[in-house]
Amino acid sequence: MPDSRTDRLIRVDMTQGSVEIEPVPEAWQMLGGRALSARILLEDCDPLCEPLGPDNLLIFAPGLLAGSAAPTSGRLSVGAKSPLTGGIKEANVGGNPGQDLMKLGYRAIVVTGQPADSEARFALDVTAEGASLRPADEHRGKWNYRLIEDLAAHYPATASFISIGPAGEMRLSGASVACTDQEQERHPARHAGRGGLGAVMGSKGLKYVSLDAGRRPARKPLRRKEFMALSKSFTRTYLEGPAQEPFPKWGTSVCVSEADKIYTFPYKNRVEGRSPDAETLDGMRIVESFEERGGGMHNCLTGCIVQCSNIVHDAEGNYKTSALEFETLTLLGSNCGIASWEDVADLDRLCDEIGLDTIETGAAIAIYMDSGAMEFGDAEGAKRILGEIAEGTELGRTIGNGAVATGRKSGHARVPAVKGQAIPAWDPRPLKAAGVTYCTSAMGADHTAGLIVEPGQDYEEAVRASQESQILNAVVDSSGFCQFLMPNLDEVRAFFGHFLGCEVSREAISDLGWRCLEDEWEFNRRAGFSSADDAMADCMQTDAIGPQELVWDMAPELVARAYKRFEPRDELFELRPS
Ligand code: SF4
Fold it and tell me: How many structural domains is the chain composed of?
């Protein structure tokens, strides 16, 4: 049974068509997921490279604990220089590829180069026998569900897949990377959505990656007895505690009504923070549909004890889509003035099929509607636009390239984005700490980089809270744990210690998160980013929402304090991801 000391890296050169396997350097032993992706990009990738050119790297790195018996720990980081932001990007995703890659003993796949023929498509197969590239032209242009159906007929039932749809093949900046979930059907419903990393995969001619770990057992921790005891006690405490209450019942869509109450359920391109459609978009409506139509809650990866992912059926009881989440209900729903969760479910399925980030795409459609080119609430029109993206029409390409591209093309100034990336549902006007994260994270506007849901927070405290949340989330995204498990730093360091067979101090675990942030900031600095890129979107500073007329009004000098490390306080180690 392999353990962390024998882990290897797979290096794939798409120019040469070669695959090499090498050991993980000793200095990287504690690195996995996002921290490993950031280190590889900083050391091996020219920050000034063209994101869709041969010199960019595309990295698939499971978290350190993926493939082990630690609960809910199989998440995968996808990393590259982003074609959307021009900076470093990590998008974190569920499904089983992260589990399988680590069970095979691979800490990361690093893809470089580009085939001479831009129409050529390739597949990378990873098994216990090694890794190999092969031509996959027959799959060119396939939508994700059709692709996986076809692959399922040829690969063992134990294989999982990472793939792109037509948006990635067209190299659109809103393109996602799909991962199959753990269900027998292997739906490509889990997406590394943010930052356009599907376009980077498309630029490398890589249509899919298959991972077959067969029936390999869980990875072996170096202190096995202690690790298993910790996994057991953590699971018991979690399942008996209040933290797990809402997610297994309703998923993240349960956030709709609460978010609406605190003015962070954006409406019509964010002109309002509340939506008259909160009732019809509430996750409760989805849960109510389970009884009549089937569907229900499930875990997207093996070993998840949270099970926050919903499976949504249509009126005839057939599978439609999976993980209709809060962000999707907001950006493709209320933010486009679309009131029906069923329409949003259709849009979500189309985005998963074509391989698109639902946040970026929803924001882009809302900007297009706001420009006057289309009515808010036109759900059928929104579906037609997604069809145009798949066809590659001029309008389709514009929307598929995201919010900023759509604002530019339509000459519309209200573009809620930071560092080129659309702002997610959580609104920086009531949630100042989230705004600090959007401005200072190397990722741009990304709630998964550090979210604190606390309206009315003192501004100085918001800066500190953002930094603490950014450190915590960098560690969690490097561990393989899902943020919805909400582990704190003390819990993560205990798991790391037993897994690696060494003591991991509070200092070491917080340093891991901080160093990851520093690597990401340094990559962006070398890519030409400056403090000017930290500016909040103009419309967030001018367009007020709610009775308190909330705008983004934090001084840039105050926001910039998030770059200077605060003295760690006990709260840092007890904080849980929001
Ligand atoms: S908590 Fe939800 S998103 Fe996270 S791994 Fe489990 S099912 Fe997937």
Answer: 3
One domain, residues 101 and 76 = yes
* Beta bridge pairs of residue 22: 9
The reply to whether 542 and 413 lie within a common domain is no
- The answer to whether the beta carbons of residues 103 and 3 sit under 8 Å apart is no
CB atoms under 10 Å from CB of 574, counted, come to: 12
d(Cα 37, Cα 58) in Å, to the nearest integer?
Answer: 9
Q: What is the CA(487)–ligand 1 centre distance, in A?
A: 13
Q: Are residues 442 and 413 in the same domain?
A: no
Contacts 24+ apart (CB under 8 A), 543-546: 543/270, 543/271, 543/414, 544/429, 545/263, 545/270, 545/271, 545/272, 545/273, 545/274, 545/427, 545/429, 545/430, 546/263, 546/273, 546/274, 546/429, 546/430
Domain end among 352, 387, 422 = 422
Element (H, E) at 135: strand 130-135
100-146 confidence digits (pLDDT tens): 999 999 999 999 999 999 999 999 999 999 999 999 999 999 999 99
Query: How is residue 135 written in tokens?
Result: 């031509």
Tell which residue, 488, 414, 451, has the closest CA to residue 326: 451
> Are residues 278 and 416 part of one domain?
yes
End-to-end CA distance of the chain: 36
Tell how far the Cα of 72 is from the centroid of ligand 1, in angstroms.
7
3-state secondary structure at position 170: coil
Residues 8 and 28: beta-carbon distance below 8 Å: no
Can you tell me the distance from the alpha carbon of 325 to that of 313, in angstroms, rounded to the nearest whole number?
15
Of 390, 422, 454, the residue at which a domain comes to its end is 422
> Do 397 and 436 belong to one domain?
no
Residues 442 and 331 in one domain: no
Enter the tokens of residue 221: 């921790």
Residue 506 belongs to domain with CATH number? 1.10.599.10
Q: CB of 504 closer than 6 A to ligand 1?
A: no
Q: Is residue 226 part of a domain?
A: no
The interaxial angle of helices 489-500 and 224-240, nearest 10 deg, is 150
pTM: 0.97
Q: Is 25 exposed, middle or buried (0-12, 13-18, 19+ CB in 10 A)?
A: exposed
HSE-up of residue 476 (Cα within 13 Å, Cβ side): 31
- Determine the residue of 180, 255, 482, 483 to mutate for testing ligand 1's pocket, defined as the one with the most ligand atoms within 8 A of the Cβ atom: 482
Residue bearing the CA closest to ligand 1, atom 2: 308
| 244: pLDDT strictly greater than 80 | no
Are residue 270 and residue 151 in the same domain, yes or no?
A: no
Q: What is the pLDDT of residues 408-433, one digit of tens each?
A: 999 999 999 999 999 999 999 999 99
